[in-house]
Amino acid sequence: MDFSERMSSYRDDINRSLESLFDKKSPEVLYEPMRYAVNIGGKRVRPILCGIFYRLFGGDPAKVLYPALAIELLHNFTLVHDDIMDDDDLRRGNKTVHVKWDLSTGVLSGDGIVSLAYKVLLKEKFERSGEIIRIFTDGLLEVCEGQAYDKEFETRNDVTEKEYVRMINNKTAALLAVPSAIGALCAGAGEDMVRLAEKYGRALGLAFQIQDDLLDIAGDEALFGKTYGSDVAEGKKTYLYILAVKLMNEEDHKLFLSIAGKEGITRNEIFEVRKLYEKYGILEKAENEAARYIKEAGSVIDLLPEGPFRNELKEFTAWMLKRKY
Amino acid sequence: MDFSERMSSYRDDINRSLESLFDKKSPEVLYEPMRYAVNIGGKRVRPILCGIFYRLFGGDPAKVLYPALAIELLHNFTLVHDDIMDDDDLRRGNKTVHVKWDLSTGVLSGDGIVSLAYKVLLKEKFERSGEIIRIFTDGLLEVCEGQAYDKEFETRNDVTEKEYVRMINNKTAALLAVPSAIGALCAGAGEDMVRLAEKYGRALGLAFQIQDDLLDIAGDEALFGKTYGSDVAEGKKTYLYILAVKLMNEEDHKLFLSIAGKEGITRNEIFEVRKLYEKYGILEKAENEAARYIKEAGSVIDLLPEGPFRNELKEFTAWMLKRKY
Asked: Cβ A122–B112 below 8 Å, yes or no?
């Protein structure tokens, strides 16, 4: 099997196992929306990453299943509640839980998913279970903090680069650091290796998020996408936005703020923002910053034990980050 | 110190310790509403109960603090999200979090409180930490299930007594069973004693909830309260409501359903419901049911080790349940 076939196979296993968590559970009014939210899917990168780190450190594949699923549930919990907070109607083309059902169901099924995440995490015992649960919990609280910063940024125009990086570190990178570290811990890796795993996850997450910010407007592909410039239209405080506010002269700054987040924004206005970004080298700066984190992730990988799963991690990293923009 | 002075002293300790959890925490947009929600207060019965069971089984008082606080936080988490789901504006005379701030803040600060609950739970290590976390997690999921049943009951007129008892067992009794069992576990009590502690908490919770249902309409004091008959006005599926639907003849059943939950209900109509309850002996039946659980709680206490903290538990039970109706 080549890499993408192996990824598909991992994903199928994970989806089957996730599905089985909801077998014959009552009350249906709770478990049906929970199951729906978890089934909306996604690439399952977090449990896959957990599995790769686990095997990289020589763990027995069967045992890592529950911690990996728990992390995917934790991630899904954040999506259900974020969709409420961001008032989003759709996720991956499907109605969000609070839209398909109602607000109460959205709140409660999120709560149910995080409870189930802990329940699943506790199903398998490891020598260092205490540390595993601690990392899991710290990740959960960190994601809440990241979401709080993100919501706060909506009301501010003076967010600094440092604040922005802290936010995406909390909100995005934490949930890639957690599966990496937990995978290593479950396999009984040494403390220094667990720290490396975490460091890798952080770098991957930061690179991924900055790339995601770029993809909104920078890629040629994005141009033809339906959501081209949707961050600009929303006035979202992305890495590009933060740099714009920091770097532009007074006139351009004013122009930029008059367009970003404007109601009824036109495609031409989005192009104008892109031109402003280009004028100040903002796209390039963001690409360089992403590249810096990609390099960091790569140099962490080089410090991990050699073997087929280190290669798997390299392929995984390239796959996560090889996006055109 | 007499019992009520000791309770006050326990409560003060708990409040001080809760407050210290929020020292210098950022982001403020997350921790300020979390702190507010936790400070709205309450009687702190769950951490107190945890402490009593802990000392009853000979534990060192200092060590039980964090598990006890974690349970109080868990309880507060459920209140913040329940207030959103029930669209309640006030809690103990203070604005609820989602009203004082906004919906997003309500959702997120609830999430933050449950995360913090786990973080606090993990601060102290015990020989049976694994089991403690498991009981805590089962309680969390059970409360979600109970809330789901409760919300579902709003749309139904055919809720059975059995379904109702399951709901309050999940929603109310679980969060009294959890502190009892965890208190015993932290002190290293034997498995049979932990099961007794849990059984006591369940009985206490069921008795407490049925009494709460009765207090809405049955007491002489309630008559003069501002919220007299508010469950009737809301058409809430209380134990009394369930019995009414089960026992009334067709005519009275029709009359009852035409009043309960009616918009712009009058005080006279609430009296009419009370008369219907009296006609079918519903208040008496509910009192008997509460008394049955009170007796059960008492007989569990008699099986616990003798000593000053068994007496404390007796006093605590009497204090929790000695409410006029």
From this structure: no
H/E element, B228: none
How many whole angstroms from its chain centre is CA B267? 28
Domains annotated for chain B, with CATH where assigned, are 3-321 (1.10.600.10)
H-only helix segments in A57-128 = 65-85, 97-100, 103-121
Give the number of other Cβ atoms within 10 Å of residue B38's Cβ: 25
What is the biggest distance separating any 2 CA atoms in chain B, rounded to whole angstroms? 62
ipTM of the predicted structure? 0.96
Q: Tell me, what's the pLDDT at B222? A: 57
Mean pLDDT over A210-221 rounds to: 85
The partner residue sitting opposite B111, judged by closest CB among A81, A105, A122, is A81
Q: Would you tell me which residues 81-120 of chain A have a C-beta closer than 8 angstroms to some C-beta of chain B?
A: 81, 84-85, 103-105, 107-108, 110-112, 114-116, 118-119
Cβ contact B123:A130 at 8 Å? no
> How many CA atoms, within 13 angstroms, populate the side-chain half-sphere of residue A322?
6
- From the list B81, B122, B148, which residue is nearest A30 (CB)? B148
Q: CB of A94 within 8 A of CB of A102?
A: no
Percent of chain B scoring above 70 in pLDDT: 97
Cis peptide before B27 (omega within 30 of 0): yes
Q: Are A208 and A325 in contact (CB under 8 A)?
A: no
16-35 of B, contacting A, C-beta below 8 A = 26-27, 29-30
- For residue A140, list chain B residues with Cβ-Cβ distance below 8 A: 115, 118
**Which chain A residues contact residue B84 at CB under 8 A?**
103-104, 107
Q: Is B122 within 8 Å of A104 when comparing Cβ atoms?
A: no
Question: Average pLDDT, whole number, for chain B?
Answer: 95
**Confidence band for A61, pLDDT divided at 50, 70 and 90:** confident
Helix (H) or strand (E) holding A248: none
Provide, as residue numbers in chain A, all residues whose Cβ is less than 8 Å from the Cβ of B144: 30, 108, 111-112, 115
Q: What are phi and psi of B42, to 5 degrees?
A: 120, 180
pLDDT given at position A120: 98
Q: What's the mean pLDDT in B230-240?
A: 95
Nearest-CA distance B154 → chain A (Å) = 12
Q: How many CB atoms lie within 10 A of CB B150?
A: 21
pLDDT of residue B227: 73
pLDDT tens string B264-306? 999 999 999 999 999 999 999 999 999 999 999 999 999 999 9
Helix (H) or strand (E) holding B166: helix B161-168
Task: Please report the pLDDT score of residue A221 as a whole number.
Answer: 59
Residues A130-169 have pLDDT tens digits of: 999 999 999 999 999 999 999 999 999 999 999 999 999 9
Residue B216 predicted with pLDDT over 70: yes
Choose the mutation target among B21, B120, B138, B144 for the interface with A, i.e. most A CBs under 10 Å: B144
* H or E element that contains A94: strand A94-95
CB A120 within 8 A of CB A70: yes
Do residues B80 and B106 make contact, with C-beta atoms less than 8 angstroms apart? yes
Q: How far apart are CA A229 and CA B125, in angstroms?
A: 50
CB atoms A147 and B108 under 8 Å:
yes
Nearest beta carbon to residue A27 from set B118, B122, B149: B149
Q: How many CB atoms lie within 10 A of CB B310?
A: 15
pTM exceeds 0.90: yes
Using CA atoms, how far apart are residues B7 and B257, in angstroms rounded to an integer? Answer: 42
